[in-house]
Design goal:
Elements: H1 3-11, H2 15-23, H3 34-58, H4 63-69, E1 73-77, E2 89-92, E3 96-100, H5 101-107, H6 111-116, H7 119-138, H8 143-146, E4 148-154, E5 157-162, H9 164-179, H10 187-194, H11 198-218
Parallel strand pairs: 1-3
Antiparallel strand pairs: 2-3, 4-5
């Protein structure tokens, strides 16, 4: 796996493809058709841009200053990756954010990646992601919270649930728009595995290119 070529390709992956990638990890993904997954993803990204703009205009564009203004406790931890995959950071309501060192250590152990990225910038990106979850918790009308799908129906009775993937998708793009990051932040899923489990990184890369092909066939 050539990480330079991989990054060059990921730079051009569409937001719609990343949306399908996000949906693929949601337990309710089968409740939403592919076209609706794309439209919901793009709506979430649009809302993420609006939320980032609101924060920039009302508070700051610096995530560390934003965290301070909201009296959030931000710490760094040497906890290892979660059992279910990468864990870059964790927001614990009401006011705690923990940034994990290990995934970033793995990224910056690679010579090419350490020249392509700045660690402080990635920390700011990761912090911004968790800041969205703080903002999201305070606003019941934010897109990721007000958008729901029917997960069970029996005659006239039905239950609806939010989609966790929309929360994560909004958080990713909120971070991108707030910090001006060049790529979709989802690329961190791939590059953090590169020096850890390269086969997993390659599998994830093949997955996202597969979604690009699906979108071509859907003519979206």
């Amino acid at each position: 796996m050539d990480i330079k070529n991989t990054l060059n390709h990921l730079k051009g992956v569409s937001d719609a493809a990343w949306g399908l990638y996000a949906f693929s990890r949601d337990v309710l993904k089968d409740k939403v058709g592919l076209s609706d997954q794309v439209s919901l993803s793009l709506a979430a990204i649009e809302d993420a841009e609006m939320q980032a703009r609101k924060i920039r205009e009302s508070v700051s564009s610096d995530p560390w200053e934003i965290a301070q203004s909201f009296s959030l406790s931000v710490t760094k931890s040497d906890n290892e990756m979660g059992r279910n995959g990468l864990l870059f950071a964790l927001f614990t309501p009401p006011d705690k954010i923990e940034i994990m060192n290990e995934p970033l250590d793995r990224i910056f152990s690679d010579e090419y990646l350490s020249s392509a990225f700045d660690r402080k910038s990635l920390e700011s990106l990761i912090l911004s992601h968790e800041l969205f979850h703080f903002v999201e918790e305070k606003d019941s009308q934010i897109f990721s919270r007000k958008t729901k799908v029917t997960n069970f129906r029996f005659f006239r009775f039905e239950t609806k649930s939010t989609l966790r993937c929309l929360s994560e998708l909004e958080a990713m793009y909120f971070a991108k728009f707030l910090t001006g990051f060049e790529y979709s932040p989802y690329i961190l899923d791939i590059i953090a595995y590169y020096n850890y489990q390269e086969d997993v990184a390659e599998k994830l890369f093949n997955e996202i290119t597969g979604y690009e092909e699906i979108l071509k066939n859907l003519s979206i």
